[in-house]
Amino acid sequence: xxxxxxxxxxxxxxxxxxxxxxxxxxxxxxxxxxxxxxxxxxxxxxxxxxxxxxxxxxxxxxxxxxxxxxxxxxxxxxxxxxxxxxxxxxxxxxxx
Length: 96
Prior knowledge:
Layout: E1 2-7, E2 12-17, H1 25-41, E3 46-53, H2 78-85
Antiparallel strand pairs: 1-2, 1-3
């Protein structure tokens, strides 16, 4: 499950990806949303923006298992696509 949180004091949004072992995707979503509420309730000035995406897979995750996938239609060339959706220069990431 991929969920979005807003940290008001920091001025950032956080994307969290969690894994849930459940009998159905509906059960996984329900459990993940309950955990999301618990997660942000323990943090000051953080809100769950009520946006989540789920991805169902079979079996147990092993090395290299795909645990999330999202397809988006776009006519942007690769570099522009990455800059628009993933590397906007507003991310708080380290560098290698």
